[in-house]
Give the backbone structure.
Amino acid sequence: MSTGEVTDAGSAADASAVRYENASKRYPGSDALAVDGLSLTVPAGEICVLVGPSGCGKTTAMRLVNRTVELTSGDVLVGERSVRDIEPAHLRREIGYVIQEVGLFPHRTIAQNIGTVPQLLGWDRRRVAARIAELLDLIGLDPALGDRYPGQLSGGQQQRVGVARALAADPSVMLMDEPFGAIDPISRERLQNEFLRLQAEVKKTVLFVTHDIDEAIKMGDRIAIMRVGGHVAQFATPAELLMSPADEFVEDFVGADRALKRLALLRVSDIDLWEAPLAHVGQASAEVRAKLDGAEVPYPLLVDGERRPIGWLSHRDLDSEYVPAQPDSPLGPVLEGDDIMRDALADLLQGQSQYAAVIDSRGRIAGVLSIEIISDFLGSPAAEMDEHSATERPRSAEGASEVSRDGERE
């Protein structure tokens, strides 16, 4: 491809890595650098979140990619091409851009807004219409809304249209500048989840700017925490940031509850569970007592014929010759493998229980979770490993609830 040439955006564009090479920016009249020697690589198809306090240069760093801010020194490469070698207008048509205020044209319909870049690229009318229909379906909006104007849509709907417009020409890179910052908390979580669902399908390289560390941890495959002066304090996965902050600044920025944040990235099935000695109604108590020697869980779990848990047996239960049908201790919390670990810990604490039975999709016992297991995990090297990409992590039931075709909760 020759320098400055525009890709054929009608075919699926592969995601491109973004590489900063000692990139710096000094604004005219300023003695200080807004971005100072930034060097990092965002792998193709990943979400990189730039986060930090106001004035740290995160938005400036992002805007260097599409040359809405020009480099003072250094370079930024999209794929193998320097942005310096691409004519700015062409570059911006190749890169999707979503901003907090959405920026939809109020005098143009939703369909016309989505089709803006394809029209600028000279696509024919039929091709543009097909792409608009495809994107309305992808973001879950009723096709009838295509004839409405932005002012007739809710803030959340407008934000989804903004994402669709950024995806219209199938860019290899997307820039997102606090895209959900102006949305109410419930809609914000819903839109975050919706974008992660879209990302699982489209697999773009995304640079995402936010000031909210919780949003960064949720949305990022990698996070660059920046400090004032345009320096990167740490560039790592969410798990690495939470369990091994590079310095006091990062530790303070991530927050004192970083262990709980780490648990929010995990499912119960991500941790090795313990096995409890199992007992059946009418079984000889002596057989059950024999299972307790060396058992990971010091209490037997009563199960039915299908291995579905009933309750915990006490020592008094086992004083009888045979296992009773009604155990002394109630079952307590019951968890599933897909439950979020943070919520599982809350269930254990609320139930004042040391142990919780974990069941499979058929309700059969799959293992036992305990507060001790969680504590041991957080103190182990395994806690620093992020096994899930941003699109594969668990999401809360509230944020994952279904939305209707017009974007409102059903």
User: Anything to note?
Assistant: Residues 185-202 form the longest helix (18 residues). Residues 1-12, 398-410 have pLDDT under 50 and may be disordered. DSSP finds 15 helices and 16 strands in the chain. The longest strand covers residues 18-25.
